[in-house]
Amino acid sequence: MRTTGDAFHLAIPARDLDAAERFYVDGLGCKLARRYDDRITLDFFGDQVVCHLSEDYDHDPGLYPRHFGVTFRERDDWERLLALVRRRDLCVFAEPAVRFADDVERHSTFVLRDPSNNLLEFKHYDDPRMMY
Amino acid sequence: MRTTGDAFHLAIPARDLDAAERFYVDGLGCKLARRYDDRITLDFFGDQVVCHLSEDYDHDPGLYPRHFGVTFRERDDWERLLALVRRRDLCVFAEPAVRFADDVERHSTFVLRDPSNNLLEFKHYDDPRMMY
Amino acid sequence: MRTTGDAFHLAIPARDLDAAERFYVDGLGCKLARRYDDRITLDFFGDQVVCHLSEDYDHDPGLYPRHFGVTFRERDDWERLLALVRRRDLCVFAEPAVRFADDVERHSTFVLRDPSNNLLEFKHYDDPRMMY
Amino acid sequence: MRTTGDAFHLAIPARDLDAAERFYVDGLGCKLARRYDDRITLDFFGDQVVCHLSEDYDHDPGLYPRHFGVTFRERDDWERLLALVRRRDLCVFAEPAVRFADDVERHSTFVLRDPSNNLLEFKHYDDPRMMY
Amino acid sequence: MRTTGDAFHLAIPARDLDAAERFYVDGLGCKLARRYDDRITLDFFGDQVVCHLSEDYDHDPGLYPRHFGVTFRERDDWERLLALVRRRDLCVFAEPAVRFADDVERHSTFVLRDPSNNLLEFKHYDDPRMMY
Amino acid sequence: MRTTGDAFHLAIPARDLDAAERFYVDGLGCKLARRYDDRITLDFFGDQVVCHLSEDYDHDPGLYPRHFGVTFRERDDWERLLALVRRRDLCVFAEPAVRFADDVERHSTFVLRDPSNNLLEFKHYDDPRMMY
Amino acid sequence: MRTTGDAFHLAIPARDLDAAERFYVDGLGCKLARRYDDRITLDFFGDQVVCHLSEDYDHDPGLYPRHFGVTFRERDDWERLLALVRRRDLCVFAEPAVRFADDVERHSTFVLRDPSNNLLEFKHYDDPRMMY
Amino acid sequence: MRTTGDAFHLAIPARDLDAAERFYVDGLGCKLARRYDDRITLDFFGDQVVCHLSEDYDHDPGLYPRHFGVTFRERDDWERLLALVRRRDLCVFAEPAVRFADDVERHSTFVLRDPSNNLLEFKHYDDPRMMY
After folding, report:
1. ipTM above 0.90, yes or no
2. Which residues in chain E are contacts of G84 at CB distance < 8 A?
3. Fold for domain E9-131?
4. Nearest to E11 by CA among C48, A57, F63, F115
5. How do residues G69-83 score in pLDDT, each as one tens digit?
């Protein structure tokens, strides 16, 4: 469990702020909070993600060691996001799959790739106690 | 505001899992959830951070474009974390300072550096509506 | 008291969507959810406000009978919003004042005017039971 | 998400306060908070709606650009309200329908008309993230 | 602690429904939910009180064995209600006093009398664990 | 909705405190908070009920104008309480029935009688908005 | 953080159930839920403690390795319980003291002894993140 | 119901801290908070359990009079924990069973044994009001 009032925040590189906005706001359904010349700040599923204009982004992304995303407690939320991804044809980096299938930490996951090659993983654990 | 049941999750590189555990658990007071040969998973202020054993870490870290952390709604929480940092002599990358001092999005911030050069920023905004 | 999961929603006229976005997002600190050719949808203090492109807006606004806004339970929230209004020089239609000063429903209020002459009132009641 | 302690508030015109009270309290099941000679204040689904006695009401109402209402997170709440509307034979301005049917922001909606031609829209989104 | 979704409900006699409405709604600031010929139902501080038209009311009320009311967790809420009582000159049956002054269950209390001689006691305990 | 921290409180007559304790604690599953020579205080479904030793109790109880109880938001809670009543053979004054069957305020109800003839009604409304 | 709906439960020995009830209910202000011939069950600060009639209790109690109690997030709650302990002259095993005084996990604590020599420790941490 | 901010805490003996950590963290999925030479502290389902290195542990454990655990409000949580126990082959002291089968306080339960013979009982009551 976590608090409702605090927020996790993450800063990531964006090669182009308009492309970032199209992906996160128009695509993923996040909300735009503030725009500056060199960054945009987003309400990303209730936490803060800041896209900084930068050339220092991954040209050849791999899931490890860096990625981020949301783990949903409710299966419906994970399913609805996947439906949004299909409906809006967002860029899927890894198709939905089950990981740790024979373990208690078994979970469903899919991965998206944003326009600057940041990788976003969305998970749902069979057992919510395994979310950490 | 955000939900209590979901969790943000972030994967970051760690050159050495023992060093990561000392920093996050013994140092920062996070909780260890699971240990594998190639990663450790942490309850990081209510969200999930996973440290993946990797050589692909920053050798010359700079705050932009990548960092992560927590924005506290309550000033006391930010102050107590800073007190913990001093008491436990954690590695401070940027001393406490005020940013955007003349703007509504004015906030207090300090930055830590973990043993793999991941940078952690902890913020408190004068106006909580500016947390995004 | 009200639920956290539902949202009030309000549709108002906007003569120009860019001007509306500058006022609500850049000015008032609301979050942009979606953009269409004929409307923008906003997360307005946790509820939904939709600005519809329209010529049917008030050319000579008066506080009655139409206005909308937020009543804050906490005085600090009202004060911080007023500070934002001053800092960002938003258009004040009615300066902060106390109404019903000798009654239990005594409250503090100020009113803003958006670029399409919609009037926004922000209140704080001395006695929160009087918020309805 | 939104806070439980704050309230959205909306002021609308009413040509007749008794008619307004019959519609909102006896009809729609809202709660009457206060009565004055020139207005009534209501607990409207947890937010505040104030009906101001006024001749400045819409004689030929159209859904755009002005209307208001509630978006329910739970489908059951939307269904129960519709059942109340039928049972109490409230004035329906737009029959239940689905809008944006092929989009992620797909939602169910119906619209009522109050005695002063204010239009009230009640919505339920397939995907609650689209409520803004 | 108690749930937010359930409600305590209480049925009491009222010799006159208009007088009851004036006391509870105009006086005490409760909200009117429904009106029938033989009763009114009220949102009484978040619970339900129903006033039934009846001749079977107390002609010579005493605090024991029957009365009802609210115990506030927060001192401010008790103070604000007392201020409302003074401001609106409601009928006070017992002036504010402290009971069980030397015990852990020490609490502040005042009692009102409604137009049908129902007695309403409002309490605040020094130690909230003693609220039961 | 109501707060979690406050409590409704009700004082009722009891001809015999042991009988009252057997009914409310052993029978109804409420929790005993404090015992005095002349009263017992109970955590009654999260609110406070105080049974005062008194001869002034109803010898010929009728549902109107006085009774009290709980309205459950969740049907399951009402059903489980009814199961407890049957299992523990508590005194049923009115068998489960539906009232206002053709109205929006339709609800299920049953009534118990305590050893001092206080009547307890437990309700579940089809539409929770009708709980007041 | 923990859930509101679950409960920790603990079973401890009691040499005499009446003595246990006097200590926990009359003394400590817990609530009695159920009584059997061989045990009593209690609502102990929101969790369940069951006292089992048994000769297998500690005749020479020491704080380690067994004790239990509550850690309060709010200092006021710890202070009020200490005031109750003094007011009701409960058996204090260890006077209020500060432990780990120079560490982040610094906390205030006092210990009570129940009639069967079970030891109860009540804590308040300077930094709530150290509660685990 | 209980608060989210407080924590129950329990101190128990552990003959070996590594064995305790393997059981509670790797086995049961609890989270490690702090490690000392003589104890480990755990986030145990949201409460605090501290394992103290000690020779004073039970060599011949029986369920009475001492054990501890969690009562889950939701059946799913009890079921998922049982699945984890089976999947990770934890030491079961008492197989899943129903107790008080014909009573309102009927509940499902299973008991585990930790490496120091502390017994852990996990319960789910048919009627959540019986959790105390």
Report:
1. yes
2. 104, 127, 129
3. 2,3-Dihydroxybiphenyl 1,2-Dioxygenase; domain 1 (3.10.180)
4. F63
5. 999 999 999 999 999
